[in-house]
Amino acid sequence: MAEAAGKEVAAHSHCWAGATGLRQERLAETTLQRWQQIHDLLDAGVGLLDCSRRLGLALNTVKRYARAETPERIQRVPKYRPTLVDPYRDHLRTRRAEDPGVPITQLLGEIRELGYQGSSNLLYRYLNQGRHLDDQTHLSPCRATRLLLTEPQNLTTEQTATRDRLAAACPEITELATLIGSFAALLKPADDNDDRLWEWITRARAMGLSHVHSFTRGLDQDLAAVTAALTLTHHNGRTEGVNTKTKMLKRQTYGRAGFKLLRHRILPA
């Protein structure tokens, strides 16, 4: 479920992206051209496999572009990492709003007085990317997904506010947040979870979330095991943990010790 949620959040980046928006580089232009080529062929009645051959693309790539209703569904927000400039974002945004032509060297001197210890190149890049225009720290698809998957009581006040803005970004993300919450409730074993699971699958398939649809098909293929995990209180977690620890001990001594030492290490574990 976490993997499907991550793909859905990334696919709707254009809905919740901040002022930094989507990438507007050469890669974005290539994505737009490729999307247009594939959809022109599909509108002309050409099959997916034939599109793949004509354009020299992998079949899965063609399928991914074919599923996207707009080119923005393919594009992704840039994955910016936290920088030393982030604590001074509000100051930079205020100064740029007051005087759009203020020199960057002057801004550098001002934030140095506030405690900035980074380089001038870092500030230049930060401003050119428009990251000072965001109201909050830049959010990557991975971090956005983590906010949706975390239990609300484990989030800080700021994270809760960010999660609420994210969940209200578009109808699809709102539906995804609802599905995540209801699926998390199923993880606590109960006798009626098998019926609730079917209700969840039916509701998920009624929504326009293609990656979640793929997840539900995976549930169908192993439904007996999934139902047992959601309804029975006992599990094989302890056994799997011992297996994992045994494999770790074996790797640590590989090529340096024999069976006798391995046995002595495993028995106390």
Concise account of the structure shown:
Residues 33-96 form the HTH IS21-type domain. With 269 residues, the chain is mainly α. Helix content is 64%, strand content 0%.
Fold and architecture overview:
The protein has 269 residues and is an all-alpha fold. Helix content is 64%, strand content 0%. The longest helix has 18 residues, at 26-43. It is extended.
Number of strands: 0
Uncertain runs are none
Structural class estimated from helices and strands: mainly alpha
| Mean pLDDT, all residues | 86
User: Could you say how many structural domains there are in total?
Assistant: 4
Q: How do the SSEs run, as a string of H and E?
A: HHHHHHHHHHHHHHHH
Helix content range: 55-70%
Instruction: Give me the Rg, rounded.
Output: 25 Å
The backbone outline, from C-alpha atoms, is extended
Describe the sheet with the most strands. none
| Strand residues, percent | under 5%
Distance between the termini: 33 Å
Number of helices: 16
What's the structural blueprint in terms of helices and strands?
Blueprint: H1 2-11, H2 13-16, H3 26-43, H4 48-55, H5 59-67, H6 89-98, H7 104-113, H8 120-128, H9 141-149, H10 157-167, H11 171-186, H12 193-205, H13 210-221, H14 223-231, H15 237-252, H16 259-266
Organism: Saccharopolyspora elongata
InterPro entries: HTH_IS21_transposase_type, Transpos_ISL3, Transposase_DDE
Domain HTH IS21-type: 33-96
Keywords:
Transpos_ISL3, mainly alpha, 4 domains, 269 residues
